[in-house]
């Protein structure tokens, strides 16, 4: 029960990693505030949290909107009276196009969600987090570790998020707030399973063949599950990581070493 009695706010809650983060935090003893634009997704995850004996508050939120973010903070404090951790998990896929030709408006739009929204939420929640010597966790990506074509805008956004986390760690550390990042690689969830099914049908092989081929490039020979990524978030939000700040922890089964 690493988060026993704590309150964790999770943005970008959906059926994948956001759900896993909320559920694993609840299993660790936390009550959770769930934020996403789609209310039905929040309802499903809130029911899972309740089944674990913890409390969940669903707050439909557009994290690019100042008023909506303020409502998220106010609602969480009104319900629970405290916030111990903020997990910035919301994500918008940047355009997968070479930087030499990419539409700059699309890059700006993705940057607004992936970087500026995380800054917006963290600034708003900072006073409440300071009262609890709280923690912020940014969900980043293994795209930080490579420079493949068409991933330039993606890497640009995630590199910006990493710089944001490191700078906030320096700024907020004197107030007792820790800021860290988690960088997953492959996540063996619904989206990746669908993609592997697609690749298998295109190549005339089985999805298990695609899995084995991909996992063979990882040291541990297995693709991380959403819950395994989420457990790292739980660690960083807990007192076990009480002197860890400004760090980016790669959670990729050994795909890249950093």
UniProtKB/TrEMBL annotation:
Keyword Nucleus: no
Keyword flag Magnesium: no
Record keywords, A-Z: Oxidoreductase
A GO term, aspect molecular function: oxidoreductase activity
InterPro entries for this protein: NAD(P)-bd_dom_sf, SDR_fam
SUPFAM superfamilies in the cross-refs: NAD(P)-binding Rossmann-fold domains
A Pfam family reported for this protein in Swiss-Prot or TrEMBL: adh_short_C2
PANTHER family: EG:BACR7A4.14 PROTEIN-RELATED, ZGC:101858
Name of this protein: NAD(P)-dependent dehydrogenase, short-chain alcohol dehydrogenase family
């Amino acid at each position: 029960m690493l988060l026993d009695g704590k309150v964790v706010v999770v943005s970008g809650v959906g059926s994948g990693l956001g759900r896993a983060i909320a559920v694993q935090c609840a299993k660790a003893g936390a009550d959770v505030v769930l934020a996403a634009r789609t209310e039905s997704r929040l309802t499903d995850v809130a029911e899972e949290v309740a089944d674990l004996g913890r409390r969940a508050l669903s707050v439909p939120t557009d994290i690019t909107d100042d008023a909506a973010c303020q409502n998220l903070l106010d609602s969480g404090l009104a319900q629970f009276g405290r916030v111990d951790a903020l997990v910035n998990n919301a994500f918008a896929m940047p355009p997968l196009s070479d930087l030499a030709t990419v539409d700059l408006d699309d890059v700006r739009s993705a940057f607004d969600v992936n970087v500026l929204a995380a800054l917006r939420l963290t600034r708003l929640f900072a006073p409440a987090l300071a009262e609890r010597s709280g923690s912020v966790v940014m969900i980043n990506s293994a795209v930080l570790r490579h420079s493949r074509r068409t991933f330039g805008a993606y890497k640009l956004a995630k590199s910006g998020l990493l710089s944001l986390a490191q700078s906030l760690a320096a700024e907020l550390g004197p107030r007792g707030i820790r800021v860290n990042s988690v960088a997953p690689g492959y996540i063996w969830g619904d989206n990746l399973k669908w993609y592997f099914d697609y690749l298998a049908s295109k190549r005339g092989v089985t999805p298990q063949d695609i899995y084995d081929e991909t996992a063979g490039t990882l040291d541990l020979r297995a693709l991380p599950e959403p819950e395994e990524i989420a457990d790292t978030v739980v660690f960083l939000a807990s007192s076990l990581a009480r002197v860890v700040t400004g760090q980016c922890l790669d959670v990729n089964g050994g795909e890249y070493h950093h």
